[in-house]
Specification:
By secondary structure, this protein is α+β, with helices and mostly antiparallel strands. The protein has eleven helices and 14 strands. It has one domain: Deoxyribonuclease I, Chain A, CATH 3.60.10. A six-stranded mixed β-sheet has the order 4-5-3-2-13-12. The protein is globular and about 60 Å long.
Length: 428
């Protein structure tokens, strides 16, 4: 046991479970900055009405196969959702942003790659916002004064509230800048399930935050691989470990949820690696003719969702797209369609890349894949509407006390890049 304990200790120290990168430090990252007078207790002051709003949430997952991004990588296909209006929250999950070799698993974190991905995300999101705003402005040149007033609420620039990497797993969360003041208690929790049951070549990075009065948790996973019979048990074990070991701080003065399933809105995304329990030849023949229903009847994750042992009360939307794994690089051809070399592993097509959710208050409107050929996986994306409770009394109270401090915070916030410097990360 002692080698595992030593490795686990080193891993936990290196991961820094409460460290993450963001454009602007959380307004409640240091509770001593704002001391609420005892006479204004939360329960006694928040007695006014609570309204429910629906926010649009974009979620994507992509195993990039250890291929570093370059300036030619275009995220437009990933962000194209056949809808002119943008979402309020964007969650990007990646796996294998670095090759899963020993030097990356055991060595220091390569923050340069995550910085490059975040820069691409920033450019893509704000480019879309600029184009949308310009088009709307041109249209409004011919609008009446009354219509101008109604259409004055143009989409805002997006800001990163959490970006966290563990070896090859990266999750990056972005929100509209006008929502940023209402984001509270951001935190992360990393769980390694790889070598020796604790290294970060497999596992999860979970992020949580509170928007108004509603808590969100997004879990980006890379579970155990393998297409042999019985390998799904390793993935189930990984998932059980993630749900049991992930933990968030409650805070000294807040009763915040600590476990993943305690949050109001929970979405799981990633390379879950579940395969299709059919012979490889049968799988390939059904893929060739687009018989998705026959394949999904033997999909391991669908069977686990129905069984309810590990994924009790989890849900997944209807899959109407081709399996996302495994492709030849820069090709639309599945791996193994041509004669394999002797000793090469079988890689039958499968829906390895998935997005599922837990609990109430979430409604899925889109579940599809993108067609980037950067890696041997295709990206998967989804759009949800999420119910959020908003207390008007609390909003007015918090704005009264926080407005000056928010101005001071934005003066030193850097939004130009995500260089991995000491000052760009902080503790909750």
């Amino acid at each position: 046991m002692w080698p595992r304990l030593v490795v686990n200790k080193i891993l936990r120290k290196r991961l820094g479970s409460n460290n993450f990168v963001a454009d602007i430090p959380s307004i409640d990252s240091n509770e001593t900055v704002l001391q609420v007078p005892s006479s204004f207790s939360r329960t006694s002051f928040c007695i006014n009405r609570h309204d429910t709003y629906n926010y649009k949430v974009f979620v994507s997952t992509w195993n990039v196969g250890g291929v570093a991004p370059d300036h030619d990588v275009d995220l437009e296909d990933l962000l194209d959702t056949c809808n002119d209006s943008s979402c309020d929250i964007y969650v990007f999950g990646f796996q294998e942003i670095v090759p899963l070799k020993a030097s990356n698993v055991l060595g220091s974190e390569n923050c340069k790659i995550s910085s490059e991905w975040n820069s691409l995300i920033r450019d893509a999101l704000n480019k879309r916002q600029t184009s949308h705003t310009v088009g709307k402005n041109l249209k409004d040149l011919f609008a009446t004064e009354e219509n101008l007033k109604e259409s004055s609420n143009f989409p805002q620039e997006f800001q990163c509230i959490i970006s966290k990497q563990m070896v090859g797993i990266l999750i990056s969360v972005w929100v509209r800048s006008d929502l940023r003041p209402y984001i509270h208690h951001p935190s992360v929790s990393c769980v390694g399930c790889g070598i020796m049951g604790c290294l970060g070549n497999k596992g999860s990075v979970s992020v949580r935050f509170q928007l108004h009065e509603t808590s969100f948790c997004f879990v980006c996973c890379h579970l155990a691989s393998g297409g042999r019979e019985g390998d799904e048990k390793h993935r189930n074990s990984n998932m059980s470990e993630i749900l049991s070991r992930s933990s968030f701080p409650r805070g000294s003065s807040y009763n915040l949820p600590r476990k993943i399933l305690d949050h109001d809105r929970v979405i799981l995304l990633g390379d879950l690696n579940y395969r299709i329990s059919l012979a490889e030849e049968t799988t390939r023949s059904l893929v060739d003719v687009g018989e998705w229903n026959a394949l999904l009847a033997n999909d391991q994750l669908r069977m686990e969702l129905a069984d309810g042992q590990v994924f009790q009360d989890w849900q997944e939307g209807e899959i109407k797209f081709a399996p996302t794994y495994k492709y030849f690089l820069n090709s639309d051809e599945y791996y193994g369609c041509v004669q394999r070399r002797k000793g090469e592993k079988k890689r039958a097509p499968a829906w390895c890349d998935r997005i599922v959710w837990y609990g109430k208050g979430l409604k899925q409107h889109l579940y599809s894949r993108s067609e980037s050929k950067l890696s041997d996986h295709r990206p998967v994306k989804a759009i949800f509407s999420a119910q959020v409770t908003k207390s008007h009394a609390c909003e007015n109270f918090s704005n009264f006390f926080l407005s000056d401090r928010l101005d001071r915070v934005t003066q030193f916030a850097s939004t130009d890049d995500f260089m991995c410097k000491h000052r760009s990360s902080f503790h909750i």
